[in-house]
Every structure is written in C-alpha cells, then in structure tokens.
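Re: weekly structure request thread

Next one in the queue (430 aa):
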Amino acid sequence: MYFRNALGAVSLLALSTSAALADGHAESLTIAIVNNGHMINMQKVAEAYTEETGVQLNWVSLEEGVLREQVTSDTATGGGQYDIINIGMQEAPIWGQAGWIEPLNFSDDYDVDDILPAMREGLSYDGQLYAAPFYGESSMVMYRKDLADAAGVTIADNDSWENVKAAAAAMHDPDNGVYGACLRGKPGWGDNAAFITTVANSFGARWFDADYKPQLDSPEWNAAVSFYVDLLSNYGPPGSEGNSFNEILALYNEDKCGLWIDATIAASFLENPNVAYAQSPNAGNPVGANWLWAWAMAIPSGTENAEEAKAFIEWATSKEYVKAVGNHPDFGWDKVPTGQRASTYEIPEFQAVAKFAEAEMAAIDSAAPGATELKPYVGVQFVAIPEFPEIGSAFGQEMSAALSGAKSVEDALAAAQEVADSVMREAGYY
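Done, posted below.
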C-alpha cells in the first residue's frame, strides 16, 4: 500500500509491515550502515517511516573497515545482531549462494527493472537479487578547474597517468595548504586496495592468473604501486596513509585538494563550485581503470524480523525514497542517492542541479567487472571470491607501509604475495 509521509512525498510500504505489527512481531529494526553521507542522511529521512509505521529504527553507523569486519562476523555465524546490513558487490553474490542473506523479492510497484543493470547484476546470484542498492558508483577524477586553469594544465577523459601527475604537480601548493592529489591511503580491501587496484589494472596488472595463482610480484604491480607511492609522496597531503573516502572528502571541502580520484558518489557532497569531472586515467589499459560498486541493503539469515526488514528495504531503495530526499527541507535534489535507478536521472529537478550526472553515468556504464583474458575473474577493484577480503586486507596493510616509507614497494609486494599464496593454497585453489 502507499502512504503520504510527513514530507508530502508518496512512499512505498509492503503490507507485511502493518500485518507483522498487528500480530505482535518486531516493532524495531537494527540497521548496520557505513558512515557515509547518504546513509547518515537516511536516518533523518526515515523518521517519516517510523512515524507512519511505528517501526523504530536503531542505527549502528560504522567506519567502512569496521563495518565489514563486524557485519561479516555476525552474518557468517548467524549471530542475529542486525536485521539489515550494508554490504556490496563483493559480498552479495557469495553470501547469497552460501545462504547467509535472504533473497529479495519485491512488489511490482518497486520496479526492479528500473535498477541499473550493472547494479542489479552485481548484487545477484544465479539471477536472484540478494541486496538492494541504496546507491551505486564507479570512480572518476574530480578536480578544481580554477586551480588547473591557473596552473595552465588540463585533465582529459581517460588521460594518461603521467599527465595526471603533471597536473597534480602544477596545482601542488603546500605553502598555501593545497595538495596536488588526494588519494586513498588508509589500509583495507575496500579502502586503499580498491583505488590501487584500479591503478594496477590500468598498468596491465592482475591479482591472479587463470589458475588463481597470485601475481602481486609482477613487474606491472611494481610499476603501478611505485607510481602511486611516488604521486602521493610528492603531491599528496601529509599522513595520506590514514586517509580514505570521508577523510579526503573533508579535505576537499576545505579546498585543500587539487584533484581527487574516487567514488562518483562523492560529487553529491562537493561544495566548491569550481569542481570539474573527467573519466578515470589509465596507463594504456582502460579496462578496469574505474571501479564498480554499490552500497546495498541486505537481510542476514539470522534475523527474526525478515519481513519487516524487507519492507523497510523496499521503501529505502525505492523511487519514492529518492523523491523524499529531493523534497526534504534539510537536503534537496543535489543530495539524492544516485547510481542505483535509471529514473533518478530523468527527474528535472535533479537534472537542474547535478552537473556531475553525465560523468557519473559514463563511468558506471564503462566499468567492466566481467572476466577478461588479462583479468580472468569477476570484479574491478576486488575479486569475487570468498578469500579476497583476507588477501585484500593484508595487501592494504602492506601498501600503507610502503606509502609511509616503512617498507620498500618491492618488500611490501613480496609480503602481500606471500600472504596471498598461503591463503589460496590453503583454500585448495592449487
């Protein structure tokens, strides 16, 4: 059924919620979310959901790496701590196949076909959706065009990494608090490892060969990581090994970054009017130079409140939710979650304020998560196998050590290769 929320926007709610409450079932849901802007905003928008349904929402907002650890541990053991969890494309198909999360089937009004195909496919296993995208993203260059113009440099779509480095060098002005390039350095498979993998992909590197033997000691990985370390060491802000999405977003909005290559969703929160956008750079191999991801909502199999959880997810990932954010007095159309539904990009109010929309969709459309001859596995900035989080987390720690100067690039990659080889052998890949 439909109801009019306190904002005057039409919202979708499954009949099961009211029926569950009438039967004396759960009157509250515990929701684990990543502490990114759109999820934080959801807590405010969802006050209308509680007002209309009576379902109390208990939010557990965690930093990205901590969220992954806690959610994985609780979900794998059936702990039942959470009714709804934020997960992404790495987890959804694997956890769905394992039976850790519930399949999601919504009413016809939900219009699952409106979800962008790349997001729908990435969150499904064997054609069944297991997580609904709250927002989706690729990665792109976000740069201060005023600083670039003043420095006499340009950044083109799919530019070379050398040209990007030259632009960063030209904009770098640490005496005045401006750093040429702000890039992820905080360790984690979804933090620094995500960005570094896109660089490595563009240099022709790969995590595994066709037999799933790790390839981290290859010349291509050495070239890519050496470039990354050199770029951030010379033209990045101090302490880059501690920076991920939220830290860099804060730096960017303090006008301390010349360019930032990261999630397209960041564009919703950039405040400087001089920001321009370009497609991700590459070093000769554009396949995998920009990632594909969705922060999505799933239901752990351990919850006793699956029906109520599904009703909330159906509302929070619907077309009507997007309109509720756009019409909300605290947010507006430039703050709606994007990258999840085709219909969002057809809304005139959104088109009027979202100067990033065209670049965002171009990045999403060009992302290539499928297996290729060079990269014989699914995933851009991750590998879609259960063992990857352990390997990627160890890799991230080693890359952070290389960035801080605690280790050489060669030693860091050698250590990461050793961990990856041990994990894959133990898992029986060879």
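Residues 2-137+292-353 form a domain with the D-Maltodextrin-Binding Protein; domain 2 fold (CATH 3.40.190.10). Confidence is low (pLDDT under 50) at residues 1-24.
Next request, please.
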